Description:
Blueprint: H1 3-32, H2 34-67, H3 79-99, H4 104-124, H5 126-130
Amino acid sequence: MRPATWDLVRRRVYLWTLTLTVIAAGLAGALAGAEQAWSVVAGAAIGFLNLASLARAVVRLVAEVQADPQRRPGGGGGAGLALVRWPVAALATVAVLWYMPGRPEGLATGVLAALAAFCLAALQSRADLSGDDPEPDA
C-alpha cells in the first residue's frame, strides 16, 4: 500500500470516528445525561486506539510482504505491541468504568461507533485501496 493511500484512509477514519462519536455522544447526552455521553466518548477513544493500532500492524505487514514475498512469517518486531494491545484496552476499559462515572452501555456504544467509523472509511476508500493491487500478468 502506498503511503499516500494509507494517509487518505487514515484521515477518513479520523473524520468518521469524530463524526459518529459526536452524534452518538450528543444523542446519549440528550437521552441519558452527561455521564452517558462521556462514556460514549471514552468508549470511542478506546475503540479507536485499539483499531488504529491493529490497522497500523496490518499495513506494516502488507508492506513487508509486498517488499519481500519470500520472507518467513514471524520475523518482524511488531509482536510486542500485539501482545500488549488487548491488556491495555482491557485496563483502559476498567479504568473508565471504575474511576469515571461511566456506564457500560455508553462505553459499548462508543466502541461500536469507532468500529462503524472504520467500516465506513474502508467502504469509502475501497476504490483507492483496490488500486494498490498489482495488475495480473497476461
